């Protein structure tokens, strides 16, 4: 309290704006904190706002504002001035300064007023008559041109003016060249360099890897780039789903190395020509999958009267194709059949008769078609996953290897058509 001429008054100093609750005994003025004013220290000085325990804060306004709201700090912009801090011209104004901004002239042909000069110019990134063309480094259409924004993998920051597609360096992809292409990794998109024969999920010779450049190896392959066979396997091959083939040494040892051999071919001496004619329909002959109708390659030209119902005819390969054929594992038996005349045997009939049958003294293996035949050409691969043990199921590695070691007979299905009364079947 302080004494007056006739009565006493309380100081009532602001608890947050004054240094203490003591005031001048004559005027009642409290001792204010920095940038605080008023007798009771309850108001911010002009150009300041937000009274609090530390005093008031300076208004963050540009030269285009006269003051700010003492409670919120919002700047009071001059005419034509905008922005949170009153530091830019509003649309339709130009020439920012301490006195505000000037009105723009009326622009035509798609042009806008420059906020700096007040001249009518094309919007940012556009050019040409009517501002309908994007400038170099921009893309889009007319007044909606956007910057190219090409990424680290781009050749330059110039993109297609219609699509925005940037031109990527080798190993990069994406509309802005911002990510690694397939078969590349890391921040610089280096090539994975995976060994295609030993890597899973390769396409057109390109294999993907993880962010550290490690390639996903096939089952029997090891190495960061999948270029080595697992111990106990050999023969890295792109055609092998497991990459390398497990060693099979007939139970004697478990380790092996790939022999320095080149696979050759054994050919039939001459093409085989067969003519099929229709048998008597009133004579029923039972032919099943155990007793196949076969001829030998020693008979280059043969005429056969088919039983009824008709069945496929097989050809037995000569002795050059049998015996010890272990080295044929992984290779293929290739042949081509050309037929004309007659009618196609039903799918139900053909499904019962294998394309190829291998005979040994202890086991019979069968190969059925796995894909549509093109131009009558067949390539039958010697791999256990493709063969069936007759009456049992899919062949094992040991079953196929034992069969190839002591091969007694090979039958190949020669015909898939049946003759009619009017037309014989000719097969080559």
From TrEMBL:
<dbReference type="Pfam" id="PF00052">
    <property type="entry name" value="Laminin_B"/>
</dbReference>
<feature type="disulfide bond">
    <location>
        <begin position="32"/>
        <end position="41"/>
    </location>
</feature>
<keyword id="KW-1015">Disulfide bond</keyword>
<protein>
    <submittedName>
        <fullName>Uncharacterized protein</fullName>
    </submittedName>
</protein>
<feature type="domain" description="Laminin IV type A">
    <location>
        <begin position="278"/>
        <end position="428"/>
    </location>
</feature>
<dbReference type="GO" id="GO:0048731">
    <property type="term" value="P:system development"/>
</dbReference>
<feature type="domain" description="Laminin EGF-like">
    <location>
        <begin position="148"/>
        <end position="191"/>
    </location>
</feature>
<keyword id="KW-0732">Signal</keyword>
<dbReference type="GO" id="GO:0009887">
    <property type="term" value="P:animal organ morphogenesis"/>
</dbReference>
<keyword id="KW-0325">Glycoprotein</keyword>
<feature type="disulfide bond">
    <location>
        <begin position="168"/>
        <end position="177"/>
    </location>
</feature>
<feature type="disulfide bond">
    <location>
        <begin position="77"/>
        <end position="86"/>
    </location>
</feature>
<feature type="domain" description="Laminin EGF-like">
    <location>
        <begin position="59"/>
        <end position="103"/>
    </location>
</feature>
<feature type="disulfide bond">
    <location>
        <begin position="217"/>
        <end position="226"/>
    </location>
</feature>
<feature type="domain" description="Laminin EGF-like">
    <location>
        <begin position="192"/>
        <end position="246"/>
    </location>
</feature>
<dbReference type="GO" id="GO:0009888">
    <property type="term" value="P:tissue development"/>
</dbReference>
<feature type="disulfide bond">
    <location>
        <begin position="13"/>
        <end position="30"/>
    </location>
</feature>
<dbReference type="InterPro" id="IPR050440">
    <property type="entry name" value="Laminin/Netrin_ECM"/>
</dbReference>
<dbReference type="InterPro" id="IPR002049">
    <property type="entry name" value="LE_dom"/>
</dbReference>
<dbReference type="Pfam" id="PF00053">
    <property type="entry name" value="EGF_laminin"/>
</dbReference>
<feature type="disulfide bond">
    <location>
        <begin position="11"/>
        <end position="23"/>
    </location>
</feature>
<dbReference type="InterPro" id="IPR000034">
    <property type="entry name" value="Laminin_IV"/>
</dbReference>
<feature type="domain" description="Laminin EGF-like">
    <location>
        <begin position="11"/>
        <end position="58"/>
    </location>
</feature>
<keyword id="KW-0424">Laminin EGF-like domain</keyword>
<keyword id="KW-0677">Repeat</keyword>
């Amino acid at each position: 309290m302080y004494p007056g001429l006739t009565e006493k008054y309380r100081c009532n100093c602001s608890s947050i704006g004054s240094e203490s609750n003591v005031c001048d005994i004559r005027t009642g003025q409290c001792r204010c904190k920095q940038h605080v004013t008023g007798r009771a220290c309850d108001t911010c000085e002009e150009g300041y706002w937000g009274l609090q325990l530390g005093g008031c804060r300076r208004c963050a306004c540009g030269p285009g504002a006269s003051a700010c709201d003492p409670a919120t700090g919002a700047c009071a912009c001059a005419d034509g001035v905008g922005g949170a801090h009153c530091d830019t011209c509003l649309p339709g104004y130009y020439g920012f300064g301490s006195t505000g901004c000037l009105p723009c002239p009326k622009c035509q042909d798609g042009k806008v007023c420059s906020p700096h000069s007040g001249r009518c110019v094309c919007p940012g990134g556009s050019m040409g008559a009517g501002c309908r063309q994007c400038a170099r480094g921009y893309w889009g259409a007319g007044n909606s041109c956007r910057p190219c924004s090409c990424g680290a993998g781009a050749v330059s920051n110039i993109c297609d003016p219609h699509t925005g597609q940037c031109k990527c360096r080798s190993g990069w992809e994406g509309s802005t060249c911002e990510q690694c292409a397939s078969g590349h990794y890391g921040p610089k998109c280096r090539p994975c360099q995976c060994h295609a024969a030993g890597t899973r999920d390769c396409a057109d010779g390109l294999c993907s890897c993880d962010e550290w450049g490690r390639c996903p190896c096939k089952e029997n392959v090891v190495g960061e780039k999948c270029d080595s066979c697992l111990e106990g396997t050999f023969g890295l091959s792109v055609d092998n789903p497991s990459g390398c083939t497990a060693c099979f040494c007939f139970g004697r040892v478990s380790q092996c190395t790939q022999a320095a051999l080149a696979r050759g071919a054994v050919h039939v001496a001459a093409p085989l020509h067969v003519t099929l004619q229709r048998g008597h329909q009133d004579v029923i002959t039972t032919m099943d999958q155990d007793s196949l109708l076969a001829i030998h390659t020693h008979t280059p030209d043969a005429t056969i009267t088919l039983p009824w119902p008709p069945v496929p005819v097989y050809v037995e390969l000569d002795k050059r194709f049998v015996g010890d054929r272990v080295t044929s594992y992984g290779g293929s038996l290739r042949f081509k059949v050309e037929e004309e005349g007659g009618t196609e045997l039903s799918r139900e009939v053909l499904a019962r008769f294998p394309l190829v049958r291998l005979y040994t003294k202890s086991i019979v293996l069968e190969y059925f078609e796995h894909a549509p035949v093109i131009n009558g050409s067949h390539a039958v691969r010697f791999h256990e996953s493709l063969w069936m043990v007759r009456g049992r199921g899919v062949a094992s590695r040991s079953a196929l290897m034992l069969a190839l070691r002591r091969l007694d007979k090979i039958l190949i299905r020669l015909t898939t058509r049946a003759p009619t009364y009017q037309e014989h079947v000719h097969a080559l």
